[in-house]
UniProtKB/TrEMBL annotation:
Name of the protein: Kynureninase
Entry's Gene Ontology BP terms: anthranilate metabolic process; L-kynurenine catabolic process; L-tryptophan catabolic process to kynurenine; NAD+ biosynthetic process; quinolinate biosynthetic process
PTM-bearing positions, type N6-(pyridoxal phosphate)lysine: K209
Phylogenetic lineage: Bacteria, Pseudomonadati, Pseudomonadota, Alphaproteobacteria, Rhodobacterales
Keywords: Hydrolase, Pyridine nucleotide biosynthesis, Pyridoxal phosphate
Catalytic activity: L-kynurenine + H2O = anthranilate + L-alanine + H(+); 3-hydroxy-L-kynurenine + H2O = 3-hydroxyanthranilate + L-alanine + H(+)
Annotated SUPFAM superfamilies: PLP-dependent transferases
Pfam families for this protein: KYNU_C (PF22580)
Top enzyme class: hydrolase
Involved pathway(s): Cofactor biosynthesis; NAD(+) biosynthesis; quinolinate from L-kynurenine: step 2/3; Amino-acid degradation; L-kynurenine degradation; L-alanine and anthranilate from L-kynurenine: step 1/1
Molecular function terms from GO: kynureninase activity; pyridoxal phosphate binding
Assembly and binders: Homodimer.
Enzyme Commission number: 3.7.1.3
Assigned protein family: Belongs to the kynureninase family.
């Protein structure tokens, strides 16, 4: 194995006494990020002021950082650009795909998709006179037909960890003349994505989960090169213009992926993300995937052997899930608060899901063993059943 996961673990700040299994919501802080951002503020923003757009390369940062992510998702150089939020990138991708299929009205998704993606698609459908159809995850392939314009799917289900077969579903969509939009929020940095190999059409993703870019880190968008010069997103922004500083009154799309830029890039946040991506330079994605399966398999076996009153809510076959595992418990929220109080951080998803994310860059078998041990003790003792553990916070 060429990837040294002991070394990658040392690249993160992990608080003493904490077993962190929530990187599928927010990755921990890379040690390099603090100094990189401090340097940027001291040497660039404070000294260069507005000239930093040219002198420090802030203007081209979205493409340079995008190139670093491209390798992790099976894309090529010059095909990924950063900026804005994931919801904006979903809107851009779905709207561009819909424009490329003007005679079709149907956008298809599944009930395991993240609600935010569905909200975006609902709003878009209302605005352009399209129809959003939502089916169960296992029924997606059968629902693809000749009416379909866009298949919009999150590759890894945020609650169960169920993983769709990107290559197979994309092929089926193409057979029926439809285009695909893949949300990689729970895939990028977690599983071995191959966008070009799957011949996907569009992909989007966030960078604050497994890519560890920090809270609110910018999203990314990818367009297959065969569509890059045709794609016309409805949301057309200044930075996506062919000549932003000509200040034309009429929009002219920039060439290729640059047209998917919208607003001014968040330079400070992107600097933190760029530092976070350093650790990936020596990581083999196939080895990352193998390590993920090792950790999740051990966790499932340990929980089922030692923890009463929980039911596996993820696919048992590791090839059918991402890098997260969830279990159901009737009082999942209180159980998770009890776990967090003892230094094992996962999260809760309504209505009854205990969710645990495994990030091979910093999680190891000792994290699995500690989490299983403490969860078992909490469930056997009933120590989760305290009034304070039942009080829900604003963010769950």
């Amino acid at each position: 194995m060429s990837t040294d996961f002991t070394t990658t673990r040392r690249a993160f700040y992990l608080p003493d006494g904490v077993t962190y299994l929530d990187g599928n919501s927010l990755g921990p802080m890379p040690l390099a990020a603090r100094q990189r951002v401090a340097d940027m503020m001291a040497d660039e923003w404070s000294q260069m002021l507005i000239t930093g757009w040219n002198k420090a390369g802030w203007y081209v940062q979205p493409r340079l950082v995008g190139d670093r992510i491209a390798r992790l998702i099976g894309a090529g150089a010059g095909q990924v650009v950063m900026g804005d939020t994931l919801s904006i990138k979903v809107f851009q991708a779905v709207s561009a795909a819909r424009v490329l299929r003007p005679d079709r009205r149907v956008i298809l998704s599944d009930s395991g998709n993240f609600p935010s993606d569905l909200y975006v698609a609902q709003g878009l459908a209302k605005a352009v006179g399209a129809e959003l159809r939502v089916v169960a995850p296992e029924d997606v392939e059968a629902a693809i037909n000749d009416d379909l314009a866009v298949l919009m799917i999150t590759e890894v289900d945020y609650r169960t960890g169920r993983r769709h077969d990107m290559k197979a579903l994309t092929a089926t969509a193409h057979q029926h003349g439809a285009l695909t939009v893949w949300d990689l929020a729970h895939s990028a940095g977690a599983v071995d994505v191959d966008l070009l190999g799957a011949d996907a059409d569009f992909a989007v993703g966030c960078t604050y989960k497994y890519l560890n870019g920090g809270p609110g880190a910018p999203a990314f968008i990818w367009t297959n090169p065969r569509l890059a010069e045709q794609a016309e997103p409805i949301l057309q922004g200044w930075m996506g213009h062919a000549a932003p500083f000509a200040f034309d009154m009429e929009y002219r799309p920039a060439p290729g992926i640059e047209r998917m830029r919208v607003g001014t890039p968040p330079v400070i946040a992107m600097t933190a993300l760029d530092a976070a991506l350093d650790v990936w330079d020596g990581v083999d994605m196939a080895e990352l995937r193998a390590r993920s399966i090792e950790l999740t398999e051990a966790f499932i076996a340990g929980v089922e052997a030692n923890c009463p009153d929980v039911t596996l809510n993820s696919p048992r076959d590791p090839s059918l899930r991402g890098s997260q595992v969830s279990f159901r418990h009737p009082h999942a929220y209180a159980v998770m608060q009890a776990l967090i109080a003892q230094g094992v951080v996962g999260d809760f998803r309504a209505p009854d899901v205990l969710r645990f994310g495994f990030a091979p860059l910093y999680n190891d078998p000792s994290d699995v063993a500690r989490a299983v041990d403490i969860l078992g003790k909490i469930l056997r003792s009933g120590s989760w059943d305290r009034p304070d553990f039942h009080q829900k916070a604003a963010v769950t």
